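REVIEWER CHECKLIST
Item 1: Sequence provided? yes
Item 2: Single chain? yes
Item 3: Sequence as submitted:
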Amino acid sequence: MINSSNSSYSYNNKINYKRIFGLVGRGISYSFSKDYFMKKFKKESIHEVTYEIFDIPKIEDVLSIFNNPFLKGCNITIPYKKSIIPFLNKLTPEAKSIGSVNVVNINEKRHWIGYNTDVLGFEFSFKNDINKLSYKNPKALILGTGGVSKSISFVLKQMGIPYKYVSRRKNKDFLVYEEVNQYLLEDYKIIINCTPLGTFPNIHSCPPLPYQSISSQHYLYDLVYNPSKTLFLKKGEEKGSTIRNGLEMLRIQAEESWKIWNSLK
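Item 4: Structure as written out by the authors:
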């Protein structure tokens, strides 16, 4: 794992800020992360600090961001949660086990350390719902096979909930969407969308499922939080399903990120 390159991406530091944090991803202008942290800084009187959106076209461009001496940490989002790993000096055991990183802490030695707080964010909100629904022998479909889906499967495995991945591409370990039918949905009552489908501004898209086979017995969780109710969730709600978006997960993982960035180095 490691680190040096001349990247075409540059960021001009605002010299008033002693600490910079931010979100690294691609096509992420929709993100609430900057607004969340800037409100937090104001509310908690945290001064000389900012949070920026680093929207980069390729993962190699992260190097110039990391080399900014004022950068103290960042969040990682789609599509770089797995591809960021070779650029880091170290992973926590949990992040290494999952194979996905959504938080990077930069310590005093300028070592870049990868963490995963998606697990905590998802686990907290998901467990509360599932306990209330009292499913007997629940099974889950995970839509998408990107970095965040690894965090979701990690939690499901810990909870003893069997799951299957659903992907656009055929693979011996994944189902494809064409294989999701009425009979499968009778068995798999939990559906978790880990794809960006339905994210603002593309609010009229959703995973290609047989929604006519969704019922009030189903639970639909969408990691997308903008809009607050995606087409995926609306279609579930129309059938009486229990639904949840990813906003609470975002808030929990954001607070966990802040704890990491402010822990002893």
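Item 5: Key structural point noted by reviewer: Residues 19-115 form a domain with the Rossmann fold fold (CATH 3.40.50.10860).
Item 6: Recommendation: ____
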